[in-house]
Amino acid sequence: MQLIQRHPQLAANLVADETVDHEHPTVRSTVARLKGAKADAYAYAKAAFEYVRDEIPHSSDSGDLRVTWRASDVLARRTGICSAKAHALAALLRAEGIPTAFCYQRLTEDGAAPALHGLIALKLPGADAWARQDPRGNVPPGVDAQFSLDRERLAWPVRPEFSEVDYPVLFDEPHPAVVAALKAAPDRPSLWPIYPTEL
Q1: What is d(CA 42, CA 50) in angstroms, rounded to the nearest whole number?
Q2: For residues 27 and 72, is the Cβ–Cβ distance under 8 A?
Q3: Which helix (H) or strand (E) holds 193?
Q4: What is the pLDDT of residues 133-186, one digit of tens each?
Q5: Where are the membrane-spanning stretches (predicted)?
Q6: Residue range 92-133, pLDDT digits in tens
Q7: Over the range 69-104, which residues count as b (16 or more CB within 10 Å of their CB) and which as e?
Q8: Angle at which helices 82-94 and 176-184 cross, to 10°
Q9: Rounded to an integer, what distance in angstroms lies between the CA atom of residue 112 and that of residue 79?
Q10: Which of 29, 34, 52, 199 is paired with 78 by a 20 to 30 Å CA distance?
Q11: Residue ranges of the alpha helices (H) in the chain?
């Protein structure tokens, strides 16, 4: 699939804002811990990906009813749905000058209960292309999302027969409909009825 960069300027994918608040002390302290003695951008990006994937449970997997949306809150509270975890990973990457965009899939439960699935795409120094990454978490068993630049290793491939979709657009900001739903929901059961099902 050909990924389409929505904003023509690569620098737009480095911006800090209300959602991707990579100047926040919580984000900065996490960056410092992850960076350690990492030798290059690739090693740091892989460490950041694995941290968000493995150390911040997806709230549906853990049963956590809290809804987070701001990157610093996802990191501090250590919970979030896929899109919120994508916000956290983007903040960790952008804080280190790695351009990071937001992208989405429309997934279903074998055709039922459609919902947007949030991912990120990054562009490491010297890379010719963006590479999508899925920090959702490798639960349930059989899910095996991995950090990869040469071929995608996402949690789920889309299944067109169930009206699932890979959206090719790379957004420099999280999609406003996603952020609005996350901000409006007082808890996770309240989130699903208002969470977008498609772009």
Answers
A1: 12
A2: yes
A3: none
A4: 999 999 888 899 999 999 999 999 999 999 999 999 999 999 999 999 999 999
A5: none
A6: 999 999 999 999 999 999 999 999 999 999 999 989 899 999
A7: bbbbbbbbbbbbbbbbbbbbbbbbbbbbebbbbbbb
A8: 120
A9: 25
A10: 199
A11: 25-35, 41-55, 59-62, 71-77, 82-94, 176-184, 188-191
- 4-18 pLDDT tens trace: 999 999 999 999 999
Tell me the residue type at 43: A
The pLDDT mean for the chain works out to 96
Q: How far apart are CA 58 and CA 143, in angstroms?
A: 13
Confirm if 194 and 179 have CB atoms less than 8 A apart.
no
**Tokens standing for 107?**
């997934």
- Model pLDDT for residues 52-83, shown as the tens digit of each residue: 999 999 999 999 999 999 999 999 999 999 99
Q: Say if strands 112-122 and 100-109 run parallel, antiparallel, or are unpaired.
A: antiparallel
CATH 3.10.620.30 fits 4-191, yes or no: yes
Cα–Cα distance for residue pair 75/59, rounded to 1 Å: 13
Going by C-alpha positions, the residue among 94, 100, 65 that lies closest to residue 80 is 65
